[in-house]
Design brief:
- This protein has a single domain, classed as Helix Hairpins.
- The protein is mainly α and about 140 residues long.
- The protein is built from two helices and no strands.
- This is Flagellar FliJ protein.
- Keywords: Bacterial flagellum biogenesis, Bacterial flagellum protein export, Cell membrane, Chemotaxis, Coiled coil, Membrane, Protein transport, Transport.
Length: about 140
């Protein structure tokens, strides 16, 4: 029996590579989002900690006010960054899903062609067996 060879094997390999690249891109953007969100949590904790300082002198209050304003500015910048990254994350997820769908289409086609090949092989084998049986009947 000759081994099954899928004519679009290189296309399948290429689509698998595209899917892997899309998956890596999605993971990279997800990691960036997680990092920014962790920084936001850290800033929120630091802000809460600054508000619980018991010593309240005028100089200390001014420094604390400026520091809290700076934390708020950094926090708002990080929130904008997270929003932008969420858009990139959605695009990366869409790209990954599309690459997965394209790969699956080729894999289903491969499975169908392999099943057809197996069926044709079984039919040819059965025909050979039938011919062999007919020859034996004619000889005897």
């Amino acid at each position: 029996m000759e081994k099954f060879q899928f004519s679009l094997e290189k296309v399948l390999t290429y689509r698998q590579q595209l899917e892997q690249e899309a998956k890596l891109e999605f993971a990279a953007v997800q990691r960036q989002v997680n990092e920014r969100e962790a920084k936001l949590d850290q800033i929120a904790k630091e802000r809460a900690q600054m508000l619980t300082v018991p010593e309240q002198t005028l100089g200390r209050m001014q420094i604390q006010h400026r520091y809290l304003a700076q934390l708020e500015q950094v926090s708002s910048e990080l929130k904008l960054e997270v929003d932008q990254l969420q858009g990139k994350l959605d695009q990366a997820l869409d790209g990954y899903v599309k690459a997965q769908q394209q790969r699956k289409v080729i894999e289903k086609l491969r499975a169908k062609k392999e099943a057809e090949y197996q069926q044709a092989f079984r039919q040819a084998e059965q025909k050979q067996l039938d011919d062999l049986a007919n020859r034996k009947q004619l000889i005897s």
